[in-house]
Amino acid sequence: MTHTAPRDIIVPAVPAAASPRRRTAGIVMAVASALAFSSSGPLVKPLLEAGWSLSAALIVRMGLAGLILSPALVRALRRERSFLRRHGLALLAFGLIPVAGCQLLFFSAMQRMPVAVALLIQYLAPVMLVGFVWLRTRRTPSRLVIIGSIVAIAGLVLVVDIAGVRFDLLGTLLALGAAICVCVYFVMSERTGDDLPPLALASGGLLVGAAFMGVLAVTGVLPFAAPPVTVVFRGVEIPGILALLWVGGVATTLGYALGVMAVPPRRLAAGVVHRAQ
Questions:
Q1: 198-218 and 253-262 are packed helices; what angle lies between their axes, rounded to 10 degrees?
Q2: By CB count within 10 A, which of 39, 108, 202, 273 is most buried?
Q3: Residue 58 in contact with residue 107, Cβ under 8 Å?
């Protein structure tokens, strides 16, 4: 009897995570989200080098993605009149940390180091989460999770080449800051559900992030410049605004939409965290 009661409490906490189909769908969406995010850097970096300010690029990127996903936010507002009162703080935090904070830190790091290196450091976020859960719960992760974390860290060391000239301390710290913001992204996305739809969280957070960057630009905290330029991507010249429209309308929209849909307990995160513990 002493062993049965705790088990009855723990098992219902992950009701749908055991479904192979849902876990597979979550993994597919998570991979697609990562691929979408990874396509942003190679397009935004030449735009910044051509004369666009970081604030202008992020305002267009986040604002466009937030507007595309806004129907989900509008539906949530219509369904529940107290939606903003109940979830306004969550939308604000999501917009300032996982959205504006992550992008501001990542693209700042990207300007000081290769895009691939900045991405790899940022994608240490799952490893950091594993360590946090380990310290908080005092429960050792599974062997598979530990091996995966070691492989991720080893791959980062090999690519960053800490003994070479490519290592940039400030850029590395900025990228690590972006990784912490990604950790917050995972944690907040996991708490979405019927009362806080994932796409409504993504849309609200993106619009908050765009507004925050707009305030920084208007007040002069960050410079603002959006000249008509052309950028070269894989040897092809394209208008800068076209590249940014792709980044905002496709890469960022799909990245955040698929990411928040993959993380909730009913699909990916609960099963992964349950296995990690």
A1: 140
A2: 202
A3: yes
